[in-house]
Amino acid sequence: MKYISTRGQAPALNFEEVLLAGLASDGGLYVPEQLPVFTQEEIASWAGLSYAELAFKIISPFVNDCISDADLKVMIDETYAGFNHSAVAPLKELGTNEWVLELFHGPTLAFKDFALQLLGRLMDHVLEKRGEHLVIMGATSGDTGSAAIEGCRHSKHVDIFILHPHNRVSEVQRRQMTTILADNVFNISLEGNFDDCQEMVKASFADQGFLKGMKLGAVNSINWARIMAQIVYYFSASLAVGGPHRTVAFSVPTGNFGDIFAGYLAKQMGLPISQLVVATNRNDILHRAIAGNDMSKSQLVHTLSPSMDIMVSSNFERMLFDIYDRDGAAISDLMNRFRTESVSLDPARWEKVRELFDSFAVDDDATCQTIADVHAETGYLLDPHTAIGVKAARECIRDKAVPMITLATAHPVKFPDAVIKAELTAPALPTHLTDLFEREERLTVLENDLSAVQKFISEHVHPE
Ligand SMILES: *Cc1c(COP(=O)(O)O)cnc(C)c1O
């Protein structure tokens, strides 16, 4: 399969190249030239498969000109064997046709493990074959960093440097990163905020001279392989409630439009999905774009759902590329204007977006209220991100006869503040993390200075 850039100017790449590349050279994002489409019979025939077997069916068309079936099977099996639930992504029923899809049974208790556990293995496999070494650099406000570190800790050909804002991530999140004592893992605690961390990563991608010829790789959701792995659980959830014979709806708490974009792709690939709800917190650029045709940046607000605190949703561009009939020049023009001004879509294009997505923005008060309400109704404890999804689902639902599945993106133990504000008791850490607060930590505090960070990285990479 070939991958093309949303801005039409970068060369087409194969899977291996896309996996290692991150952003396209024209500033766009890579998408498959053509999606595999499955028939209803084919999807129905997958009903009895394990999660790993299903993942193989869905992922192999995206990678099979680069990775053999046998190698892919091993990597997928190992990835999902490491999850702490036999169903990998179990569904819980909250009420009639109201479900949550628990995506937090991976090692770091957030849905990012689904993709990053596989990504680390894929990268190592491809690097081994090519005889290359990769330096990963990423900025995190919490979940991405821990999931990426867990995903790469065993990679022989990867060094990973994760920047987090000093004293501004929760203690659980920090410890999930800093207690991984592998030789290829480096936590940089930057004396700045998350935007400073992100700026350093961007500047380093733009000018990689400090790496003396080594390549820099990305682990955020601009990396296509992350989106690819996330398509699988839409299929598994649908099959679990009677799909594909029955249509389903999904509500997805999202910031960067990554997870919901995977749902959109599942639909394009033949899965009967009647509704996709985009759920945001007060950082609501997606809601304003979808409901009001207003794509404009606004001031970042810190919320109780920090993993969705974002000003610009990178993956929205991937969906707009389809909406603009894959016209790279039009997307390039739109995104260039968006850098400096507010933009809106042509009315006919916006109409298409509205046919595909509903959206709703939820503030902190409503988030806590939803955690409290759902707990009172069912005894089930939601994390704040998932609560936003459930609230948006309840507000936007179009057909009560269709199962509405909210993606539960994190375990509530990761975000105790919201649970406590909802006047409930924060849950205990799961068994594989009970000694988290006693484990040794390793991190380096660096001043908010690009050359200091780059010097640290160039001194600590270990190409073999
Ligand atoms: C990363 C994250 C999200 C948002 O994911 P997108 O890729 O922006 O869709 C939502 N919830 C949690 C818990 C996360 O860690």
Automatic annotation (TrEMBL):
The entry's keywords: Amino-acid biosynthesis, Lyase, Pyridoxal phosphate, Threonine biosynthesis
Entry-linked CDD domains: Thr-synth_2
Entry keyword annotation includes Nuclease: no
Any Pfam family matching the protein: Thr_synth_N
Keyword Plastid in record: no
Catalysed reactions, semicolon-separated: O-phospho-L-homoserine + H2O = L-threonine + phosphate
Domain Tryptophan synthase beta chain-like PALP: 92-329
Cofactor(s) this protein cannot do without: pyridoxal 5'-phosphate
EC number(s) stated in the UniProt entry for this protein: 4.2.3.1
Pathway assigned in UniProt: Amino-acid biosynthesis; L-threonine biosynthesis; L-threonine from L-aspartate: step 5/5
Record PROSITE patterns: DEHYDRATASE_SER_THR (PS00165)
Top-level class of the enzyme under EC nomenclature: lyase
Family: Belongs to the threonine synthase family.
NCBIfam families the record matches: thrC
Protein name, UniProt field: Threonine synthase
Species: Neptunomonas concharum
